[in-house]
Amino acid sequence: MIRTAAPPRATGPGAAPDLGVTPDPEGAPDLGVTPDPGAAPDPESPSDSTAESGDRHASPLHVGIIMDGNGRWAQRRGLPRLAGHRAGARTVRRIVSAAPRHGIGVLTLYAFSSDNWRRPALEVRHLMSLLRTHLRSETRRCAEEGVRITVIGRRDRLDPALVREIEASEKATRDGGTLHLQLAVDYSAREAILRAAQAMAAHALTHALTRTRTRTRTRESDADAQTDAGDADTGDADNQADAGDATSDAFRTHLSRALHLDAPVPDVDLVIRTGGEQRLSDFLLWESAYAELVFTPRAWPDFDEDDLGSALADFARRDRRFGGLAPAAGSPWPSTDEA
């Protein structure tokens, strides 16, 4: 089901956006993952209904966010597009801090698509520099708050200095158990699926050749004529085993490896796209097969914890049957009179 969120909230005509590259240490307090139980209530904290949006979910959620609208946000304010990307980076910090409070276990953020290489070279350089700076400045905080960082996507086209920063962040945060933060960089879902399919086919071919060589050596070393008939049956079983290896779980393993993950992550439960567009743009296509979709016109720099809570509350109201049927009235079993 597709749902469009409420339109943007009005802002004061005299309010000027904060354009600092790094957060102001004297500004708003950092939203920690574990609030101080003895602290006084924060009048700016989200409402109870928003803060408890994650409590209705039986297990941690996987939420993917297409962070769109940075450039348009800046242009509407007469600012360069780069200012929008800097503002969007600050939103990332707020949402990452808020996510565990809303029952999110995996948060995947679409930072840079493979198609984004088509953008002006100056903008691409700025985005890559911003990503490197963000990783360097946030890794320690993420490690302290139990946030594990992984970067999915291609790395062969990234600057070696950025790749080293990615690897350092992943190593420093690998034990994080509060939230798994995935940053999709130079990412294309279709390309990742293609690489996984190629790897799976190569794996099956290697095993088939190994079995063939083993059977050949067995035949050559066995003088019993009846062995040949037995080997024919064994060959059929081996062929069936090869076909059985082509399972969804096996493919997920190959897909994880193509994305530089050490193990598959849960499927996506909810995809949120900011900025008003209503498409997936080659984002987590395999993992989002049964994901719910929420599109909001609010640009990413304006997206806040209340917006996240609203999207999750919308998600919680939806009836997810994964292709099955809802139980018939008065019965624990699904209705049988529906197609």
Automatic annotation (TrEMBL):
<feature type="binding site">
    <location>
        <position position="119"/>
    </location>
    <ligand>
        <name>substrate</name>
    </ligand>
</feature>
<dbReference type="InterPro" id="IPR018520">
    <property type="entry name" value="UPP_synth-like_CS"/>
</dbReference>
<feature type="active site">
    <location>
        <position position="68"/>
    </location>
</feature>
<feature type="binding site">
    <location>
        <begin position="279"/>
        <end position="281"/>
    </location>
    <ligand>
        <name>substrate</name>
    </ligand>
</feature>
<feature type="region of interest" description="Disordered">
    <location>
        <begin position="211"/>
        <end position="245"/>
    </location>
</feature>
<keyword id="KW-0479">Metal-binding</keyword>
<comment type="function">
    <text>Catalyzes the condensation of isopentenyl diphosphate (IPP) with allylic pyrophosphates generating different type of terpenoids.</text>
</comment>
<feature type="binding site">
    <location>
        <position position="68"/>
    </location>
    <ligand>
        <name>Mg(2+)</name>
    </ligand>
</feature>
<dbReference type="InterPro" id="IPR036424">
    <property type="entry name" value="UPP_synth-like_sf"/>
</dbReference>
<protein>
    <recommendedName>
        <fullName>Isoprenyl transferase</fullName>
        <ecNumber>2.5.1.-</ecNumber>
    </recommendedName>
</protein>
<feature type="region of interest" description="Disordered">
    <location>
        <begin position="1"/>
        <end position="57"/>
    </location>
</feature>
<feature type="binding site">
    <location>
        <position position="73"/>
    </location>
    <ligand>
        <name>substrate</name>
    </ligand>
</feature>
<dbReference type="InterPro" id="IPR001441">
    <property type="entry name" value="UPP_synth-like"/>
</dbReference>
<feature type="binding site">
    <location>
        <position position="292"/>
    </location>
    <ligand>
        <name>Mg(2+)</name>
    </ligand>
</feature>
<dbReference type="Pfam" id="PF01255">
    <property type="entry name" value="Prenyltransf"/>
</dbReference>
<feature type="active site" description="Proton acceptor">
    <location>
        <position position="116"/>
    </location>
</feature>
<keyword id="KW-0460">Magnesium</keyword>
<feature type="binding site">
    <location>
        <position position="81"/>
    </location>
    <ligand>
        <name>substrate</name>
    </ligand>
</feature>
<keyword id="KW-0808">Transferase</keyword>
<feature type="binding site">
    <location>
        <begin position="69"/>
        <end position="72"/>
    </location>
    <ligand>
        <name>substrate</name>
    </ligand>
</feature>
<comment type="similarity">
    <text>Belongs to the UPP synthase family.</text>
</comment>
<feature type="binding site">
    <location>
        <position position="85"/>
    </location>
    <ligand>
        <name>substrate</name>
    </ligand>
</feature>
<feature type="binding site">
    <location>
        <begin position="113"/>
        <end position="115"/>
    </location>
    <ligand>
        <name>substrate</name>
    </ligand>
</feature>
<feature type="binding site">
    <location>
        <position position="117"/>
    </location>
    <ligand>
        <name>substrate</name>
    </ligand>
</feature>
<comment type="subunit">
    <text>Homodimer.</text>
</comment>
<dbReference type="GO" id="GO:0016740">
    <property type="term" value="F:transferase activity"/>
</dbReference>
<feature type="binding site">
    <location>
        <position position="273"/>
    </location>
    <ligand>
        <name>substrate</name>
    </ligand>
</feature>
<feature type="compositionally biased region" description="Low complexity">
    <location>
        <begin position="1"/>
        <end position="17"/>
    </location>
</feature>
